[in-house]
Design a protein that fits this description.
Layout (H helix, E strand, L loop, with lengths): L1 E5 L4 E3 L7 E7 L2 E4 L5 E5 L6 E2 L1 H6 L6 E4 L3 E7 H11 L4 H9 L2 H4 L3
């Protein structure tokens, strides 16, 4: 994963852009806006921290624009890396999978 910073007021991505990665909000705040510029969702580390998961899975066009409402930090997971992880992960036993996930700090708060 790549760690990046987005300054307040900048787009994380724009509507109809090609989606090939997932963003995980580490700090800050983002707002999703639809094609009519209406706010549809708020993303923070504690509320809806995953952004762009559908594009990661399906490599489709973005259906919203996401704007930083504060200086923010995100982790970026590219689709190619995600596919490599899924392929390798599918080869592990159930106990190995659980142990792996429990040792990833980013996911530890969900278990």
């Amino acid at each position: 994963m790549i760690k990046g910073t987005i300054n307040q007021g900048l787009n994380l991505y724009a509507i109809n852009s090609i989606g090939n990665c997932l963003f995980i909000v580490y700090s800050g705040k983002f707002v999703s806006k639809d094609s009519e510029n209406k706010e549809t969702n708020v993303h923070t580390p504690d509320h809806s921290p995953l952004i762009g998961e559908m594009a990661l899975l399906h490599q489709c066009l973005r259906e919203e624009t996401v704007v930083a409402q504060a200086d923010s930090t995100v982790f970026v997971l590219k689709r190619s890396i995600f596919k490599d992880i899924i392929e390798a992960y599918s080869l592990l036993s159930l106990d190995e999978k659980k142990g792996f996930l429990l040792n990833v700090e980013l996911f530890s708060k969900y278990y």
